[in-house]
Amino acid sequence: MTTIRLHSYFRSSTSVRVRVALALKGLGYDYVAWNLRADEHRSRSYLDINAQGFVPALEMDGLVLTQSLPIIEYLDERFPETPLLPADSAGRARVRSLAAMVASDLHPLNNLRVLRHLESQYGADQASQAAWFRHWTRATLDPLEAVLAQSEHVGRFCHGDQPGLADICLFAQMLNNRRFGVDESAWPTLARIHKACCDLSAFDSARPERQVDAVHR
Amino acid sequence: MTTIRLHSYFRSSTSVRVRVALALKGLGYDYVAWNLRADEHRSRSYLDINAQGFVPALEMDGLVLTQSLPIIEYLDERFPETPLLPADSAGRARVRSLAAMVASDLHPLNNLRVLRHLESQYGADQASQAAWFRHWTRATLDPLEAVLAQSEHVGRFCHGDQPGLADICLFAQMLNNRRFGVDESAWPTLARIHKACCDLSAFDSARPERQVDAVHR
Fold this sequence. Notes:
Chain A is α+β, with helices and mostly antiparallel strands. The first copy, chain A, has helices spanning 13-24, 44-47, 68-78, 89-110, 112-122, 126-149, 165-179, 188-198, 201-204; strands at residues 5-8, 30-33, 57-60, 63-66. The longest helix of chain A has 24 residues, at 126-149.
């Protein structure tokens, strides 16, 4: 068995995704914490691991893997038991598209560096940043709810009755939403699937507050 | 041979990506134009195709595929000749990560809906929007240049001597950069790879100005 080392920050949404994937695969790993609030990810020692300065990064098989979705695709190819993507191309396209809605259209607009930039460039205060967060969250989760509510492929999870890549992205996003007071009442399907995720220990173990570097406040 | 229908807008960066992939695969398709400047993508008739209201969408095999990278992954699985991803898992992870840097960390921050929102929420004028665009472009392309400049895997293109998913994302982004007056002098490797893409007819044919709905001004 290869040694796996995860570079992570407890609250990072993209780190949550990879932690869930590792847990669903039953893979143990060394946890290396980088404090984003203290800009440790901008340090020379971290930039030598990932020039982009983002967590997560995953070291295994002599590789340094970056970007949460490509990392999860790699894990799924490397450890095909408990698949996180469907076996058929149409199903894979569907799950990847649902995941991309969150990972490409929603999350990048709402992460810490963007909120900080809004503050420095436009003087956006906490309330304005929260409004920005809610705006882009609704812009994606409204159509995501519509897509899932009418899909024949939805089961207990986004695609059938086993959790996968789309659920992982949704779960991490929904955790973030609660920090920004997003009203979830318009998304009953998303809330139901999120609840199904929360009921699984693999998802629960990946929560920010379960990590060794969690700051409780 | 299946009939392929591409829902597109000439200037859409994500549409450019799919057009390049189709051209690299040698696949013909029907082009259905939606005018984003006239909000046609928000019309009922388009939302019935893609509830998210984004182009591109690709109809084939009785499916409606959405999200450019999942669409390209589907095309690559369906038509494995002229692969757009490497044959090995490590190579795929690398190419997907390079693509995600552009597709998840850069482009979502700089598209039309975000620039419009900056204007409506913070009164950002054209100059301020362009500064925003340049800021996030540099934030990703600086480390992308660093990663590629030191990589043993780089050849004529991002991964070896054949174009693939990472080149597709880079090409579309570089076209956008020129519209916003981004200084590319700090990215010689990216410029070299972009030039190699421009020299191929598959990339050239996907340019905005080559499309039937192109508006020249």
